Amino acid sequence: MVMVRIIFLVAGALVGGFVIATVWPGAPDTLRAALAGRSVAGFTFPAPRAGETTNADAQPKKKVEAEPQPDHGDKPGLVKLTDAQIDKAGIRAAPAVGGRLTRHLHVPGTIVPSANNTARIAVKTQGIVAELRKSLGDKVAKGEIVALLDSRDIADTKGEYLAARLSADLQKTLYERDKALWDKRISSEQQYLRSQASYQDLKVKEDAARRKLTFLGLSQAEIDALPNQPEAQFERQEIRSPIAGKIVERRVDLGAAVGRDNLETELYSVVDLSKVWVDLAVSPGDLPLVREGQTVTVRTEVTGEEGRGRIVFIGPVLDQNTRAARVVAELANPDETWRPGSFVAAEIEVSDKAVRVLVPADAVQTLEGKPNVFVRVADGFEARPVTVGRSDDRNVEVTAGLEPGEVIVVANSFTLKSELGKAAAED
C-alpha cells in the first residue's frame, strides 16, 4: 500500500507541474523550483537541465546606462569635464584681462527741461493780442515772430522816438553849419557853442527814446525802419521768440488783453529739448562721493533707453521733506528721446581706476575660506588661490595669483566648486 501511495503522489506532482507550466507560464521561479527541484514525500524532482531557460529568464531586461560623472583626477582642486558636460553646465571661460575699476552710486531721477534752454515769451506793454502764429508743439526758431500785438503805448513810443530823431537831425545840421562858420571866424563862438549844446541835448532825447523801444521788444532793425513804416502799423508790435525750441504752453487767446494792471504778460513758453536735465535725489550719506563733472548713466525700464551725461550742479541745501540733496546732471537729447516728467534710474560713477587684472565677481569662489578662480588647464579646470583687491558693482581686481591672458571660468564657476565639494565629501 505504501508503494501505491508513493506512485500516486509522484504522478500527481508531475500532472500539477505540467498544468502550471501550461496554464501559468509566468509562474514564480520559486514555485517551479519547488516542483522541479524539491522532494515530495521523499522523492526529489530533477532541476532544469543545463541550457534550459525558465519563463522568468526569458523576459528581456532593460539596460540602464549610467551618466558619466565628472572626473576629479588625482590632483587636488582639479575637475575634469567633457565638452558635453561643459556645455550642459553652461560653463563659460575667457582670458583674464586688465580694465578699469568703476564704482557707481544708484539713485532715482526725473527728467526735467533744462533751465538754460527754457524761455517765456512775454509782452512788456499793455495791448490786445491781434494774432497768434504758433500752437502747442510747434517748433520755433530764434527771433521768429510768434504773435502780433496792438498797443497804444507802442504807437506813442514810436512817435516820441521819431520826433526826437527828427529834432536831433535838424539840430545836427544847424550845429554843423555854425561850426563851419566859426572855423572861418564868420560867426561868434557863442553861437557855435549854443548850437552844439542844443544838438547834444536832442541827441540824448533821441537815444532815450530808442532805448525805450528796445526795452519794449523792438529790434535795432525794426527801429531803423520806423521812418518808412506806414502810419497805420504804428500800433502793431511783433512778438519774437528769444530762443529756438518747441512751444510747450500757450497762456492767452486771440483778442485777449495783456500787459500791465494785473493782466497776463506771458504768451507762450518755449523749451529747447536738445539738452535736458536729470534731477537726482542723493542721500546725505552719499553726498561726499558726488562731484561736479562726474559721469551719470541714465536708464528707463519702460523703453530700455540709456544715455550718459555729467553732473553740472549740486544743491547746497537738503530738501525739507525727503532730506535728500538735489543733484542735477545734463543729458544730451538730440532726438528728444528723453521726455520731461519721466522717471529714470541713474548710476553716478564715483570712482574710475585702471587695474592690471580684472575678473567678473562671479568668477571668484571661496574655497576653504580663501578666494579662488578656476583656470582652464589641459586636464580640465583647476582651482587656483588668488589675492583680490578692490571691487566695484560687477568686477574684482586680482592682485596676485593670476596673470593677464590666462583663461579662467567667468560664468557658472559655482558648478565647479560644487563638484569639488562632492569629491571632498566622498573622500
TrEMBL record:
CC per GO annotation:
membrane; outer membrane-bounded periplasmic space
Domain CusB-like beta-barrel: start-end pairs: 275-348
Which residues fall in a coiled-coil region?
none
PANTHER family attached here?
A: CATION EFFLUX SYSTEM PROTEIN CUSB, SLR6042 PROTEIN
Can you tell me which family this protein belongs to? Belongs to the membrane fusion protein (MFP) (TC 8.A.1) family.
Give the function comment from the record. CzcA and CzcB together would act in zinc efflux nearly as effectively as the complete czc efflux system (CzcABC). The CzcB protein is thought to funnel zinc cations to the CzcA transport protein.
Q: What protein does this entry describe?
A: Efflux transporter, RND family, MFP subunit
Organism of derivation: Methylorubrum extorquens (strain ATCC 14718 / DSM 1338 / JCM 2805 / NCIMB 9133 / AM1)
